[in-house]
Amino acid sequence: MLIFEHSRAGRRAAAQAPRAVAAADDLPAELLRADAPGLPEVSELDVVRHYTALSQKNFAIDTQFYPLGSCTMKYNPRACNSLAMLPQFLARHPLADADTGQGFLSAMHDLQAMLKEVTGMAAVSMAPMAGAHGEFAGVAMIRAYHDARGDTARTEIIVPDAAHGTNPATATMCGYAVREIPTDRDGNVDLDALRAAVGPKTAGLMLTNPSTLGVFEKTIVEIQKIVHQAGGLTYYDGANLNAILGRVRPGDMGFDVIHMNLHKTFSTPHGGGGPGAGPVGVSERLVPYLPIPYVVEERGFYRLAGEADCPASIGRMSAFGGNMGVLLRAWVYARMLGREGMRRVADYAALNANYLAAELRKAGFDLAFPARRASHEFIVTLKPLKDSTGVSAMDFAKRLLDYGFHAPTTYFPLLVPECLLIEPTETESKATLDAFVAAMAKVKAEAESDPEWVKGAPHTLPAKRLDDVKAARELDLAWK
Amino acid sequence: MLIFEHSRAGRRAAAQAPRAVAAADDLPAELLRADAPGLPEVSELDVVRHYTALSQKNFAIDTQFYPLGSCTMKYNPRACNSLAMLPQFLARHPLADADTGQGFLSAMHDLQAMLKEVTGMAAVSMAPMAGAHGEFAGVAMIRAYHDARGDTARTEIIVPDAAHGTNPATATMCGYAVREIPTDRDGNVDLDALRAAVGPKTAGLMLTNPSTLGVFEKTIVEIQKIVHQAGGLTYYDGANLNAILGRVRPGDMGFDVIHMNLHKTFSTPHGGGGPGAGPVGVSERLVPYLPIPYVVEERGFYRLAGEADCPASIGRMSAFGGNMGVLLRAWVYARMLGREGMRRVADYAALNANYLAAELRKAGFDLAFPARRASHEFIVTLKPLKDSTGVSAMDFAKRLLDYGFHAPTTYFPLLVPECLLIEPTETESKATLDAFVAAMAKVKAEAESDPEWVKGAPHTLPAKRLDDVKAARELDLAWK
Amino acid sequence: MPFIPHTEQDVAEMLASIGAPDIEALFDEIPAGLRCAGLAGIPAGESEMAVTRRAHELAAQDGFYLSFIGAGAYEHHIPAAVWQLATRGEFYTAYTPYQAEASQGTLQLIYEYQTMITRLTGLDVANASLYDGATALGEAVLMAVRASRTGLRRVLVPATVHPRYRAVAQAMVKNQGIEMVTVPYDPDTGTTRVADLPDGPAAALVVPQPNFFGALEAVDALTAWAHEHGMLAIALANPTSLALLKAPGSWAEKGADICVGDGQPLGVPLASGGPHFGFMACRQALVRQMPGRIVGATVDKDGRRGYVLTLQAREQHIRRAKATSNICSNQGLMVTAATLYMALLGPRGLRDVALASHANTRALADALTVIPNVRRAFAGPFFHEAAIRIGGNVEEVLRALRAQGILGGYALGRDYPDLADAILFCATETKTEADLQRYAHQLERILSKRREAPPCAYKS
Amino acid sequence: MPFIPHTEQDVAEMLASIGAPDIEALFDEIPAGLRCAGLAGIPAGESEMAVTRRAHELAAQDGFYLSFIGAGAYEHHIPAAVWQLATRGEFYTAYTPYQAEASQGTLQLIYEYQTMITRLTGLDVANASLYDGATALGEAVLMAVRASRTGLRRVLVPATVHPRYRAVAQAMVKNQGIEMVTVPYDPDTGTTRVADLPDGPAAALVVPQPNFFGALEAVDALTAWAHEHGMLAIALANPTSLALLKAPGSWAEKGADICVGDGQPLGVPLASGGPHFGFMACRQALVRQMPGRIVGATVDKDGRRGYVLTLQAREQHIRRAKATSNICSNQGLMVTAATLYMALLGPRGLRDVALASHANTRALADALTVIPNVRRAFAGPFFHEAAIRIGGNVEEVLRALRAQGILGGYALGRDYPDLADAILFCATETKTEADLQRYAHQLERILSKRREAPPCAYKS
């Protein structure tokens, strides 16, 4: 039932309305709406009961193992939420002067400094509000850099074919053409192809490392040099930063820009689709172009730098400077982890991924890159199973739901057929991983003995298999 | 799985431990424990996931209609919780001086005054921490009153047979013998039996009104007079205050003591079994005996009255004065309702109960007191159904769970065979009541066509019918 | 080890399974020269207790103010139920509902949200959110350019649009060669005159309502003009105002084509600037040009209603370089809060909020303009924000108010040099009569240069 | 109508079904003379917004203090997860799990709680909570009298038991003719000497550990003495201390028979006094004398493990006048919090809390006793509380500390006239070294009557 179906004309959650005032008789009638907007008319209990029930229909980190590859679905410490929601933090107006927010701004400055340290970059701006937003900032800075030098012939961004879709989409939004390069058999960027691709048109390269294939680019330094020698800049997609936190730093690899996904590596909540936060770190030459605002400290006083401080900036990313509440959560997390804790993130993310890969291999699954170390995630391909039983990666994923596990990422990266991209994260225990392996093995056995049962999955969830095609064909995007 | 089954030696939620300090080498070894206490060794994620999952196994007001008779399971406004949990309120030490808590104490004084007003009593103490605790305070005051007059021959408390078990149990705890009196056919106290019961041994009467049978005692004034004329005092069990809030006041009926259940009438949460709060209101003659502390105001300064203020008090009910957090929730609720809102509580509780009773009667159910108005609750007896199908009230209740409704109270009051005591409360909508009637009718039809199916219920819950007998016979009260 | 559940025995068993001697070995594919020795610049980890205390101290340092700042972010009462429900683990720790069957909670909620937005805006379809109002405007400009049959890369934007929104949209679109032409405002009314709209073709006209000055634009005339000139009309609206003001879908004959805005007033805390969220609605015909997630209703195998992400072919993970936008994660949790807020307020409650905010701002404008030398900056109707000119140094006056615990508003001179002595203020339903009087009293005192002994302590 | 969902049409339809002309008619069985005209003394209802603002103002008025008061209620860090989970609607708005199949969440949680309490106390069984530590002591006294084979109505209670606990237990038992005999304490050590235990038979001896002064009693000797004299031994314990100190079930040869205490230190906020909760554990043989709810494991129809309320024949709703107690609602939500707390802390975490609290109190005692004229009130070991004598007016000194934002402790003279110049103080794991120094510095200053210019503002 939809909340609208609980609606009854005249019902209301009366405690929520302010004291009634007369109609706005001073406003011109032609500017007023004639009818009330068709929001639901329900009681407070209706709302609480309806949305509590809805919430229970979700899989979430708090209820299930959620090994969704490339999303880093790790435990979100509860303190991050309660501290970011302290009343004073919530109440502060974004345009209130800096002297009303020294407490808040000092935490922001502290986080900014920590992000600088873990990435090894010269400076950080936390203005971008999601990973893709960070990518936009990064590529816009690359463009601003070339433009400032009058180097306007550079019209291409090079992107490996394994990249997240946001990379080419971002390049387009920044007015660049996208040049794809292939991946070699081992999952590395094909260096020859890269060499062939770079040239006077090269504005830059966008690279995810560890790659979306779940492996570390061994030739990362060469890659960077090839691009730089061609006059391009290098963009480090930090989506997989969780894999290398404290182990290796993009700045040390010679990259010019990196974005971080705080909702991944710094464990801020995923919230059913955001909000995230996508701070960007840059090398010295890009510092002038950083998006505003960022936090500056002068003799113990903290404030947000604006247009006057940063005349060459690519500009503002949002009206008010970023997803501050998300940043506060990341700050709490970072302070609890500290320097040793951050390094442990990568250590145990790698341990869990490599263990899970090893166990799945023993259980008869095919790894896409069996010769490689897994980073924090790895790929299983179900191509052989599909060929022999007709059970697809999608079917397999749906059946895992019945066993109480969120499915891994399916059909990404696009290069590997019938793939599952599996990211356990460091916060899951061996017992959970073992239970997941057992479920994977069970589904495989089911696929072999009774493929139709698996193709019909899920069988135990609030909805059975949903018809995507109908949804796209007979659009029903709002209730009537 | 129990939390203990997630335990693994050496695992811990490390962010929760304070900095480690050396062992307490200054303490005598013979006073120290040799082994660590066997608490679970789990991660923070283990805890969050385990208890989130457990919570989802509960029916609750926030998830289901919960017409548990005599428990007033109405909507618990969320603001009550968030405001009672403001950091300053939570942090205040109970023994901190009054000048550190003027904000908090003023709210307590305000609530105390409102409770006085709604009950019509001369004074109120909010010290008791639950309904039964309030009963204890009330009967102890009655005893203190008689003792102070040297009237020590009064050894009996009269209790109607329909009373909650807490009434006779309380009388016993206060050192009284219990004298039961019967209920007449219409659900009223049998006045002749009462007249026969009172006498020089009568210390007092405990009466619930509206009674546990869901009807208002029409002769309430006579009852009170009969007891008073015999020299006894009168105790008004306010468990059902929700039925009469703002409509009629116990003080106006001439009663000497009343307790209120704030978790019922003032909508503080039931919490899976508490905490409640059971303030007591008294007539003039019992004021000196009120339990301490209560809030007093002197020239705008608020403080808790103690032993020195109240030398005749029956004493303290708890170490620190009461369930303050529950009282704060009640205060928020009372302020949001205000005077009109309080009266509406009784109006709509009565409307819902009488409507539900009427609809169930139309659906073929037998009301225990069809000739009476329902108060805020009423009784259906399933005796005829039991006789014809073998389906008991318990079976019927279990099957209702399958339809997503918490069952009414079963087998109470004891006088009515195969009874369901149904209390819808004022916060439920007609649509919900109609859905409940439909489910009741459906279960009745099932009982008539397929009694074994109903006797086997529930069929869809996290557990099937549980074996109470085994539980009591083969005691397993802690995991080993 | 905070948040890591491994015991020593677990680690040993896992390494044995992997066949690695130690955890170090798992990083052996990383070139040795790159490996980082440690993070010396980061402090040691602290317990939750220590960080909690620190956070409380920082929060206490910032305190509370009686704020009359609006300028794009509005203080409203947020029902307690909103965040108690939105932070339930099942909403808070789920992600984008890729596995629809395991995400019906989030998906149905977004579908309900989309419905609510269409009803507020009077348009056909809505997406599942954008980052904020400013980026939503940028996306709307890009969308209008894509959708325009003219192929023109020129969009008209009134100067009465929030200056920050214009800056953000500019930064978003400039690399695609799109020109944003600023339309000047009428200095008397602070609104956009049809007569001032520039000649020459364009893909779209942005129509703010209320505009940045809080003033109400002649939306019908502006929309009609856009349509007459073959442009799309992009409405930029405050969602609270939509409970009271004419829905963009009803502007002029055909209605605005796209409506965007910032959803923060719908149950989202100010929080120094975010996370807020942007909403976007449009006519059905434009849906395939819309950026961001969209949820659609469908049926499951048994024919029962259910919800899925749909029209994914627009999006970056499918369409890559040809996607409508690069947006991926949006502001899902804020949408959850907004949905709860709109459900709790309902049509009448939201209208009451709009009316009370309007009435308070009107009362405050009246109270302030009896102070000598203080006058309204613009004539004409406003929603819940208005500007006054004080004939003095605004920054100094605001500082003096701040010392009394009052945030008096936004200094318009920061963006509009010709409004150097103007303050933009807002009084939502959260303000009491006493609050309004306090502001008026203090402003009067400051402007008349009277001293007041102890600073008042609303800030604590 | 706040919290009432009825529309006018609903009301009309419902009245029609009932056959009543109006709502008034539903009250027609109430004698007319009794009907109340209205509640003039109660203010008009206010919106959630207005009450929220008022509550925030009251809270701000009270502020925060740096508190060193213990005396039965202890400030500990409470993990954020505890109350975020405990206030989930499914825990918060369920009731006593009468319908077991629909309450497995609460039932299993209580079973886990009972298990944790048995493990902390070293006893066999535990109930699902009592109101607080003081009433738990009263119930333990009643239980011991019922269980005692002697039939005696006399119980020995050391003067080192919390004075409030003694008062509450006294008020609970006196009407049943039970005598509580106070055992004096050794003025040197602040503990109970076996030599001071009175002659004559009794049903039980109460043994506090730590006692009200924070001092550690000779629990083995006291327990052994009780058993030698045919009495039950009732342990009264601080639950945090049980992670460090010998479990009551292991005291002397046979162990204490019953253990009670206040569970507040286990994740429950101080909150001006409540709700806290009392815990109770006992030997298996006494289980049928135990008051309160008890959850037991069983199986369902399919043989799967499940949980139910059990041994209900002890309780008031079955046994009525012969019940073990009149208790019905207990402190369920606090038990939920405590279970979460104990699970999050675990054996090592709780031990760390105990150790840190002990170490801080020791450090503070050392720092305070270097101040001239300040000395420990008692020799001997203590847990996380200790008493000092300051040789001056305690109330005045505490007031002076309060002016500096410090709550210095509890004035023992309020209950023990011979300790008129003594302060009982406590420093749990929440205190930093700087906090301890601040207290010592201020006390030293106050006692030496030096003035300090501006009061320090921890209180905000």
Supply the key terms.
heterotetramer; A: alpha/beta; Aspartate Aminotransferase, domain 2; 7-stranded mixed β-sheet; C: 460 residues; alpha/beta; Aspartate Aminotransferase, domain 1; 4-stranded antiparallel β-sheet
The major β-sheet of chain A equals:
7 strands, mixed
- β-sheet strand percentage of chain A: 5-15%
Termini gap of chain C: 37 Å
Please identify which CATH superfamily of the largest domain in chain C we are dealing with. Answer: Type I PLP-dependent aspartate aminotransferase-like (Major domain)
Which quaternary structure do these chains form?
A: heterotetramer
Give the overall shape of chain A, derived from the CA principal axes: globular
User: Total strand count of chain C, please?
Assistant: 15
Q: Structural class of the helix and strand makeup of chain A?
A: alpha/beta
| Total count of helical runs of at least 4 residues of chain C | 12
Poorly predicted runs of chain A are none
* Mean pLDDT figure of chain A: 97
Q: What pair of chains forms the biggest interface?
A: B-D, 202 and 202 residues
CA radius of gyration of chain A is 25 Å
Give the name of the CATH superfamily of the largest domain in chain A: Type I PLP-dependent aspartate aminotransferase-like (Major domain)
Mean pLDDT of chain C: 96
Enzyme class (chains A, B): oxidoreductase
Domain Glycine dehydrogenase C-terminal (chains A, B): 347-448
EC number (chains A, B): 1.4.4.2
GO molecular function (chains A, B): glycine binding; glycine dehydrogenase (decarboxylating) activity; pyridoxal phosphate binding
